[in-house]
Amino acid sequence: MFRRSGVPVASWLHALAACLLIFLCAPSASAVAPVAVLTIDGAIGPANADYVVRGIARAARDGSQLVILQIDTPGGLDTAMRDVIKAILTAPLPVASYVAPGGARAASAGTYILYASHIAAMAPGTNIGAATPVQVGIGPDRGARPPIGKDGAGKDDSTAGAMARKQMNDAAAYIRGLAQMRGRNADWGERSVRESLSLPAGEALKLQVIDLVAPDVQALVKALHGRKVQVLGRELTLDTAGAPINSIQPDWRTRALSALTNPSIALILMTLGIYGLMFEFMSPGAVAPGVIGALCLLLGLYGLQLLPVNYAGLAFILLGIGFMIGEAFLPSFGILGLGGVAAFVAGALMLIDTELPDYGVPVGLVAAVAIVSAVLIGATASIALKTRRRAVFGGPSDIIGSIAEVLDDTAGGEGWANVRGETWRVTSATPLRRAQTVRVVGRSGPLLEVVPAEHP
């Protein structure tokens, strides 16, 4: 057997094989499936729902073992909330909703999402609850809730009260079903809906509304190691010890959708679109105002159709804009325009229910748009009034007495002359010279009668 420095070659080979084995086995500790983190910060709307739905699907494709949905929301739209819950219930991997950081809340729609998640967690100093639904519709009792008795039933027998009770019972049954699915406190969830109750993190843990309290995401991931969860009928055991944490940030699509579904942005886009088209109609061929206006109008309408719009408010806005456009073409001298501004303000104020968190149209924005519209209408009416007082230019009587310049020599009879920048056929009883100044003294159709300017 060959030797080198007194050590057998076989010993070297065995040592090398052992090192390779250790090297190949070492990555197993770091080969733990990652944990994906999604963040909802603000009102839950179409943009947030799209972000969560696509984020969960992306985490599943990337091989993540867990999705942590970090929440800080005052609530949001019912349709968007249900889209998020459907994505959680049908997810192929567990989803943990985590109310954080300290001072955050999971109010209204956030409470339902927390109940629907496989794991519910909160950071110290956060709260959950106030899950009473807010109705969005048309009528004087929009958002009204019937009085609640000790048995939880409403006492208002009116149609509005019946609709409110129907919505209340539906929301209570929804959160109770989610609580029973996840083994959480169903009674408190129903009371949160019917009585708008809220809980801080510590009490929520005692009442089994949530599963655990953790100060941050890293602590939450560490605490979940070895936890068993049911996902689509099968039991999974989380192996989060040392798992890498990947934060999935909103992409350009989510940011664009968030901007378009902001009621203020949608209202501004729709207003700019209408004014762009109006300027295009007033000055045909300008092209740019028409193109920009059409794009803004379509984007604004797209944003509004994703929101729970009050159609009475939308009708008022369209009526007001129609009146303002009519002011540019009809000689109403401000009457149509002022009526349009009033209708626009009324419609903008009732367009979105202001009880929905972060979805009301600010009064300051409505006032600013109304003032700008009034200024434009005032300028249009002022121009119309000045035009009305101005004498008619170019008529048969106006051209009489005008000074003209002869364009060629005439020995009597007819010739041509430049009258106010236009070429006219002229006739004179006296011979005229080229470039001679003459005065128009009569008109017979397209023929002007002229005399020398020095003629008395």
Automatic annotation (TrEMBL):
InterPro entries: ClpP/crotonase-like_dom_sf (IPR029045), Membrane_assoc_protease (IPR052165), NA-bd_OB-fold (IPR012340), NfeD-like_C (IPR002810), NfeD1b_N (IPR056738), NfeD_membrane (IPR056739). SUPFAM superfamilies: ClpP/crotonase (SSF52096), NfeD domain-like (SSF141322). One of its GO terms (cellular component) is membrane. Residues 398-452 form the NfeD-like C-terminal domain. The chain crosses the membrane at residues 256-278, 309-326, 333-352, 364-385. Pfam families: NfeD, NfeD1b_N, NfeD_membrane. It is a multi-pass membrane protein. It is found in: Membrane. Residues 1-31 form the signal peptide. Keywords: Membrane, Signal, Transmembrane, Transmembrane helix. Residues 36-135 form the NfeD1b N-terminal domain. Residues 265-377 form the NfeD integral membrane domain. The keyword Isomerase does not apply. PANTHER family: INNER MEMBRANE PROTEIN YBBJ, NODULATION COMPETITIVENESS PROTEIN NFED. This is Nodulation protein NfeD.
